[in-house]
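Q: I have 539 residues here and want to know how they pack in 3D. Can you give me a structure?
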Amino acid sequence: MRFLHDVGRYGVLGVVVVLAAAALALVALVSPWWWFLAGPVLLLLSLGAWDLSQRRHSVLRNYPVVGHLRYLLENIRPEVQQYFVERNYDGRPYDRDVRSIVYERAKGIEGEEPFGTERDLYADGAEFLMPSIAPRPVPKDPPTVRIGGPDCTQPYDMALLNVSAMSFGALSANAVSALNKGAALGGFAQDTGEGGLTRYHLDYGGDLLWEIGTGYFGCRTPDGDFDPDAFARKAAHPHVTCVSLKLSQGAKPGIGGVLPGAKVNAEIAAVREVPEGETVISPPYHRVFSTPRELVRFIARMRELAGGKPAGFKLCVGSRGQVLALCKAMLDEGTTPDFIVVDGAEGGTGAAPLEFADHVGLPLTEGLMTLHNALVGTGLRGRVAVGASGKVATGADIVKRLAIGADYTNAARAMMFAVGCIQAQRCHTNTCPVGVATQDPRRSRALDVADKARRVERFQRATVRGALQIMAAMGVDRPAELHPGMLHRRVAFSGDVRAYSELYEWLAPGQLLDGGTSGGAPAGWADDWKRADPDRFTV
């Protein structure tokens, strides 16, 4: 099978080599007129040799000669795009192809475009950020967010945009290394994903958020339980700045992760402490807790085992009652996570049933507002930083998330684009054409770590600067000044444009305490708060 894949990758170059040899033989044995054939063929052969040796384009290293067809199609794309309109996340045409924006920023290309906007400003659901008559100067240095509540002794300053959870195993070693080196160059953080802490996360010195999933990879006992000693030993590494417990993932909440057996080589098996060559399926639930109270206690234990570093969890939000049950448990126990990351249901993955990806879990906007309001209404918002992940790719995406409750954002798919992903959607086959989502060493070698790391750093820097420029245009000096009244949406049923502060309920600090009635909390919130049980995950 690998031989057939290699034939597909190098077949055209092989044909060129044969033609070159035949043409040179004809020149030497028959007639110099054969140089009319030999010349162009030798040029193609030289092109193929250059493709194999250059480090900038992964496609060309894996598909010499024939890979140039992709760049030819890219060049004529504006002319053909009217016939092949790509679709946005909600089914509408893209305002502009997100991949193009990421690629341009990763390459250091300025993003100005002629002739104005390409989006339909009058479409149902169109969103608008409100500019100010008195804009502010753009800050020279991007702001950071302090992660660490009162129980944290080693707080961390998080960037506004970071690398979201992507595991070694799902991504190649070179892709993980490039993301980590890019994070080190740009001063932002990389989430390891649940696949374990590897040397590829550590070699370049990028700040790490070490994520632990239901499989406890990298800190598991032989029977699959959590190993506190292994966790404490690895969490002590100086590059590990935060530790996180993955409760659920946006694209597939309620089911565990899947790593196909074709990707489980000896190295990955050793890192995850699983059998080589067998498909790895993480359980859908955790062994370390079964109630909201136990979860809150376990997060506190993780922080203690990590030497006081920030500890938190990630989830795709579902029932509002369960979120409130967690808040009640935090109040009862007198401790909170240092951060919570909301993963929107629109998030991507290479391994999820279509029914889950399309129908289960709250989208990021609704999930983020639910968590933010729950923390505000219970007086806990000041102790817990909130991250947002799920379709964050532009500066406008960052500003919108900050306006409705997030403190910082994480991006996965956009970071994959920056590192070279062309969205071939072959992640599960181990035959990624650009070496991003494969464990085949002959494919992953095409991804040059140094070059792609610079692209990741440039993309993150340009995107954060784009967010700061938008905030300055809105008259805002710092992210904390953003609020829901600054984000407007065209309402489908009426065509009116209304602010998020008008469209949704927003709780006041502590409004749910005392049962929510004395503070005048909305009836739905007050009822859910009364029913929330810190000792039971009720739906």
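Q: Anything worth noting?
A: The chain has 20 helices and 15 strands. Residues 78-96 have pLDDT under 50 and may be disordered.
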